[in-house]
Amino acid sequence: MKATYEIISQRGLEGLVIQDITEEADVGYGSFYNHFQSKDAIVAAVIDASRKFSGGLHEHIAGLASDRAEAFAMSLRMCLHLSRADRTWGWFLLRTALSGGELRSGIGEDLQRAINACLKEGLFKYDDSDMAYEIVFGLLLFGTLKLVSADLPEDYPDKLVRTALKNLGLADEKINSALEKPLPDLNLMPFLDAA
Amino acid sequence: MKATYEIISQRGLEGLVIQDITEEADVGYGSFYNHFQSKDAIVAAVIDASRKFSGGLHEHIAGLASDRAEAFAMSLRMCLHLSRADRTWGWFLLRTALSGGELRSGIGEDLQRAINACLKEGLFKYDDSDMAYEIVFGLLLFGTLKLVSADLPEDYPDKLVRTALKNLGLADEKINSALEKPLPDLNLMPFLDAA
User: Fold this and answer.
1) Inter-residue contact B136 to B168 (CB < 8 Å)
2) Could you count the other beta carbons within 10 Å of the beta carbon of residue B178?
3) pLDDT tens, B78-132?
4) Alpha-carbon distance A164 to A54, whole Å?
5) Least CB-CB distance to B135: which of A130, A139, A149?
6) What are the φ and ψ backbone dihedral angles of B190, each rounded to 5 degrees?
7) Nearest CA to CA, how far is B72 from chain A (Å)?
8) What span, in angstroms and rounded, lies between the C-alpha atoms of B64 and B182?
9) Cβ <8 Å between B145 and A15
């Protein structure tokens, strides 16, 4: 699974074959079938594991935040800081986002759901709902691409998040407190290294 | 070159080998070397051709626009409308943007240069220069991803561009006129089909 994760991070899902995985993992081709029935099965397992990993972190963060908007802000910050700290993870997110695979729609739906919940509670206020979502997701996507492509200052992720929150209409004092809140230790559990 | 373009569009640059290209083009492996010295040479030729294609369209548009800001707006609209009309082209842009290859830095530099020129002339006005660029590039990246992944309404590209221009601080009446200006016929010359 780790080999599959690393290949997806490097080259994406498209054109991936079982032989790529067994070569990267340095095991025999046939041994693959002791663990998975197909390439699609191992890819689904890796994507599922990555979503559980993210989900666990977001849940942990939700427990530290004082409201939904702060949780949303901290989750965005964490996403970007993680990609800055671990480029393999950042590239994995980008490449799966471009695959049309489950992860993308998963992240998109989670993000949309979190935004809608904050709107309902009156924490976010904006006129043009479609485009605020486009701005936030665009900042996340482009910000991740920049963070995995170049060495950017440590405050870059939080600058992006401030812009995203402004566009969602979160009050300034709430933005400031959400950006000051300490994040959990991101190096605690690198994805699939703990497995 | 067309086969290479289509493979990049489908799977990206990473892991591409000459055999993929000759199989897609349905020619013998050895015949490749009658035309190109290496895989990198054909990839560079395709990316170069795509930049010339884009450059030609942007120049044509600049001739139709009444000022730099309008030219910028029409170019953004054209980028997005092209990806909507021709998903192969849209995927090609996305996948090369994620390759760390020349095209990305090319587009990024062109965009930054165009924005800076409009700022200098006082057409764009914004406080936080870094983040307006991030918003515009994020909208372009995420908008393109949405346009190649789903059937979206014909007015979606222009909605994205309106949001981008607002964030750049372009005056409302200038935004409206830039969005009303007719674009050149985008189906006139599909990339590499004319070759």
Assistant:
1) yes
2) 24
3) 999 999 999 999 999 998 888 865 555 567 788 888 998 998 999 998 876 568 8
4) 20
5) A139
6) -60, 140
7) 19
8) 9
9) no
Contacts of residue B105, defined as CB under 8 A and 6 or more positions apart, other chains included, come to none
Q: Which residues contact A78 (CB under 8 A, 6 or more apart)?
A: A57, A58, A61, A183, A184, A186
Model ipTM value:
0.89
Task: Compute the distance between CA of residue A42 and CA of residue A5 in angstroms, rounded to an integer.
Answer: 10
In DSSP notation, B52-108 reads HHHHHHHHHHHHH-SSHHHHHHHHHHHHHHHHHH-HHHHHHHHHHHTTTSHHHHHHH
Helix (H, G, I), strand (E, B) or coil at B127: coil
Distance CA B82, CA B132 (A): 23
Pick A149's closest partner by Cβ from B100, B135, B145. Answer: B100
Which chain A residues have a beta carbon less than 8 Å from that of B137?
Answer: 138, 142
- Please give the angle made by the CA atoms of A15, A18 and A19, to the nearest 5 degrees: 95
> Where does residue A31 fall: left (phi above 0), alpha (psi -120 to 50 degrees), or beta otherwise?
alpha
According to the 3-state scheme, what is the secondary structure of A26-59?
CCCCHHHHHCCCCHHHHHHHHHHHHHHHHHHHHH
- Across the interface, of A100, A128, A134, the residue whose CB is closest to B142 is A134
Chain A residues lying within 8 Å of B140, measured CB to CB: 138
Work out the number of other CB atoms within 10 angstroms of the CB of residue B108.
16
Residue in B87, B128, B130, B142 to test binding to A, most A beta-carbons within 10 Å: B142
Task: Tell me the CA distances in angstroms from A140 to A1, B42, B141, one per residue in order.
Answer: 26, 32, 10
Mutation target for A interface from B104, B129, B145, B179: give the one with most A CBs within 10 A: B145
Distance from CA of B194 to the nearest CA of A (A): 27
Under a CB-based contact definition with an 8 Å cutoff, are residues A178 and A69 in contact?
Answer: yes
- Look up residue B87 and give its amino acid: R
Instruction: Note whether B11 contacts A10, CB cutoff 8 Å.
Output: no
Per residue in B57-67, pLDDT tens? 889 999 999 99
CA dist B62 and B193 (Å) reads 24
Q: Does residue B148 register a pLDDT over 80?
A: yes
Say if residues A78 and A89 touch (Cβ distance below 8 Å): no
Query: Which residue, among A84, A70, A97, A194, has the nearest Cα to A148 in the 3D structure?
Result: A84
